Sequence to fold (828 residues):
Amino acid sequence: MTSQLTRENLVRRDRRDPLASCRELFELPDGLLYFDGNSLGPPPRAVHARLAEVTARQWGEDLIRSWNVHGWIDLPRRVAAKIAPLLGAQDDEIAVGDSTSVNLFKLLAAALPLRPGRRTVLSEDGQFPTDLYMAQGLGELLDGGLRQRLVPVGDLAAALDDDVAVVCTSHVQFKSGRLVDMAALTRAAHQAGALVLWDLSHSAGAMGVDLGGCGADLAVGCGYKFLNGGPGAPAFLYVARRHQEAARSPLQGWMGHADPFAFDLGYRPASGVGRFLCGTPPVLSLAALDAALDVFDGVDLEALRRKSLELGELLIELVLGGCGGFGVELLSPRDGALRGSQVSFLHPEGYAVVQALIDRGVVPDFREGGVMRFGLTPLYLRYVDVWDAAEVLRDVLATRAWDEPRYRQRKKVT
Amino acid sequence: MTSQLTRENLVRRDRRDPLASCRELFELPDGLLYFDGNSLGPPPRAVHARLAEVTARQWGEDLIRSWNVHGWIDLPRRVAAKIAPLLGAQDDEIAVGDSTSVNLFKLLAAALPLRPGRRTVLSEDGQFPTDLYMAQGLGELLDGGLRQRLVPVGDLAAALDDDVAVVCTSHVQFKSGRLVDMAALTRAAHQAGALVLWDLSHSAGAMGVDLGGCGADLAVGCGYKFLNGGPGAPAFLYVARRHQEAARSPLQGWMGHADPFAFDLGYRPASGVGRFLCGTPPVLSLAALDAALDVFDGVDLEALRRKSLELGELLIELVLGGCGGFGVELLSPRDGALRGSQVSFLHPEGYAVVQALIDRGVVPDFREGGVMRFGLTPLYLRYVDVWDAAEVLRDVLATRAWDEPRYRQRKKVT
Fold:
């Protein structure tokens, strides 16, 4: 491939790209090279009209009647039915609402009683911190009923023992972009008598996930990264059918009641995954997510994954080839099969480098430890974007353009 | 007053109303008489422009940078500072996010360890059911560490004993509109060694609440009723300063961490009420709520309460006077001092009556047990609206217009 690697050839490759037309479904500022869809996906164009419709006509004109006439009450279910096929799940295995953190709490609490006598929640020390914190909070509440055990990245399977009730891990690690083999880890956990709770925040919408095919138990994930649902969008959770009747949500809100409008004094869980709903659905945010998910209509998830891997391969080749002499190292696995839809590089001045890039219209993000993350969203990123971004990076590094106080000074959110 | 009670006089009263101009801040369909602001407040006009700005310009153009440049990360705090003065709270005693149900769970779990050796959560059997369910869910999790005890409406103070850790009650009861004396119950609870957790869903924004003056401990409330934040808007919670350092949230998400972007492996709670934040803030919904709250700018909360009571008095007088012969009874307290900002009537065919009213452009709502609820929002309701609604109600009852199959057939959400 290296011999053909010119900008012109990449422009041609974009023309042949079967996903090229998806870019038109998004609103992207002219000239911006956006590699941060793994933090916040950009708005699909349809979101604006939908939000205007929901606020002006539904909320503004039909008011309270909209719960019936515009089906607000079923919106969580309709959104779930759009997310399910991206995850290899059945519609009735997904519930949508609350945040990823809150959903993780629900499923951890639900999982422990499914493995009586066991109390360990096993995670990697590279797990996204909020997942670890939620388990710690549940542990304090259960007062000895939950023991969190952290092992180095990659050591989960080897660490399984007969006290592990749940393995709680990311499908794609947020810093390195390392992809965990879902089928293999699920098999290993089941053999050891444990369940697995997946955090799909960095894989849902970036690649086809096969929860059903892998025999997965439980999962949560985020609506605002590769699902493009907007900042702080509602999250989702997955409970395999075989666990649904035994699994109880600790957050027993009225929307998870078998008959919410009977206003009984006692909670009776809805049948199925609906029992994991809790409070009143956040209609505005759900409507945005609902409209955003339509960009996946007719998208071939294998083509999506193929393009994601090609974009990653291209970025690695260009950066290691062009910037290797400037202190940049690859953090992500070199092998695409082990990588999600992001490529992370290390640089001792990663924070300042990222700020200098943003200033030049290339937007990755930074994570502690010198990590520069480039998220790759195949629906709107072009091959030529990767070329252009790599050029800017090379220039920033070669000229030490990052070495300015304004780039080194930390902002609140990095 | 009865001698002067004509429609013409009420039109004159609306002209003199110091709150009359507030109506212009809302979008209300022509001719609709909306008495359901206690279920879903209508959109303040400013919400549309704000949502368009946040989605198109902030999310669409500045993307991930908006967390800094548009201050998304501080949005929960900015919204809290707008809610605090409505509640007699300090800005740093309010946290905004999640649902009322989830916030209630956080505070109940935080409250129990503040009263060691006690395990009873005391509520009325007329409490809004989701509050009861959340306590039940926490009880199952704590496995004996929480005992829910329900007493008849009005019996809380008499039921206090030395096992009561927390009284969990509504400030205004959702069915009857009965207003609880916050200062008196707080005093009684404190004398008995208990805390009180208030659900302010039906009082916040409908009247000035004086959490600080009453020495209140904890509270939660809803953003989509009298705060007009939109369907399923983010909720709020209140923790009095004196409890903040000892109170721990069981839902330890990264936004409640002392340093969220340090990505530590262990949770350290933020100082103050910020520790009760959890997942990523729902920016779109928060922005809508933020814009909606501006309708309270410069509103005299005493004038608001005065008008609310006058609207209620008027409705009771007109309905009992005009419809008393048709099987309508008053459920709400007759004494305004004991009433929130709604008036509830009983009718054996209440469901059908409410449907017939809605069909004629008068929108109250129905709750099980024949309860017809008329929510009174002084910011946009006119005295003449009350007159007109009472006329329609009288007509529906006098002609038995409700007695049709289409009005009797139950919808999903009533």
Summary: Chain B has two domains: 2-30+300-408, 49-296. Chain B has a mean pLDDT of 96.
